[in-house]
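Format notes (please read before filing issues)

Several people have asked whether sequences and C-alpha cells are stored in separate files. They are not. Every record keeps both together, in the order shown below: the sequence lines, then the C-alpha cell lines. Line labels are part of the format and must not be stripped during preprocessing.
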Amino acid sequence: MARRALANHHRGERRHTALTARLASELSAVQRQPREEPADMDALAKAFADLSDGYREVLSLADWEGMSIAEIAVVLGCSANAVRIRLHRARRRLARALSVDPPRRAARTQVPEGDSA
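Then the structure lines:
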C-alpha cells in the first residue's frame, strides 16, 4: 500500500514538473503575442476557492492531474461511481458559480405509461 502511495506521489511530481515546463513554454509564446481579451482568472480562482474541500480535490485530480475515474477512486478510497457523482456535482457547482451552463447529456425521451416507444 505504501509503495503504491509513493509511486502515485512520484507520478504526480513528474506530471507536475512536465506541466510546469509545458506551461512555461506556452506562457513565453503567449507573452510574445498581443493579447486579444484577458480571461477572467480571478473569477475562476474565487469560484474554485469557494468550493468545498472534497469538490476541489476531485476537480484537481481529474482536471489538473489528469487522473482517470478509476485512479481517483483508488486515491480517495471510494467507488468509481461515487467519483463520477462527486465530479459531476463539483463541475456543476463551479459552472453555476461562474454563471456558465454545464455541459449536459442528451435528454432521454419520456414515454407516457401505457404507450410504447
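For reference, the curators noted about this record: The chain has a mean pLDDT of 79. The chain is about 70% helix and 0% strand.
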